[in-house]
Each structure stands twice: as C-alpha cells, then as structure tokens.
Write a structure and sequence with these properties.
The structure is a single chain. By secondary structure, this protein is mainly alpha-helical. Helices cover 80% and strands 0% of the residues. Helix 2 runs antiparallel to helix 3. It is elongated, with a radius of gyration of 16 Å. The relative contact order is 0.15. The mean pLDDT is 91.
C-alpha cells in the first residue's frame, strides 16, 4: 500500500477544518428558514443549497450530512417538480435534522 505524504495529509486536514468552519457559518441560513413561511421561491433556494451541501459534505468526508442532505434534495426536487407533496412542518423537521447533523459535524 502506498503511503500518503505527510504534507498532503496535513493539507487535507486543513481543508476539512476549513469546511467544518463553513458548516458552522451556514447553520444560520437553515435556522432562519424555520421562522419563515416556505413559499416556492424559498423552497427552490433551499433545494439549491441542500444540493450544494450534499455534494460538498461528501467530498470532505461528512457522510452523515451528505446522506441526509442527498435524500432531502431528492424529496425537494420531487416536490418542486410536482411529483410529491411535503407538508411544511415535515420540511421544517428535516431542516432541524440537518441543523443537528451540522452542529455535530462542526465539533468533530
């Protein structure tokens, strides 16, 4: 098995720490949504943010966050395309779940 050079390992650690800080900075966006009525424009923005979070969380190795946001992304996409309906209280419960995962991931 090939060893990873120490400087590359340190660089990857630093990138993961930078991402962890970004997670902490983005929690406010999701918390703000809990106080709003979720119209189509907000849901479209939420879906875009969840999609981006899902991809970046996976790249940086935050598998719990990646999985939760990936599933939510698909549900939001189906809802916005008219293939499903999700009550607002369920969407907000999913947002709370994502916030919880983000809180855990920012401290690991």
């Amino acid at each position: 098995m090939t060893e990873i050079p120490e400087n590359l390992t340190n660089s990857l650690k630093n990138l993961k720490e930078m991402y962890r800080k970004k997670i902490a900075e983005n929690i406010g966006y999701y918390e703000d949504l809990l106080e709003k009525s979720l119209d189509k424009e907000i849901l479209t923005d939420l879906r875009m943010n969840v999609h981006k979070l899902s991809g970046s969380a996976g790249i940086y190795g935050f598998s719990n966050l990646c999985q939760a946001t990936h599933e939510f992304d698909i549900e939001l996409q189906d809802m916005l395309n008219g293939a499903a309906t999700i009550p607002e209280h369920v969407i907000k419960a999913k947002i709370r779940g994502i916030i919880t995962i983000m809180d855990v991931d920012k401290e690991e």
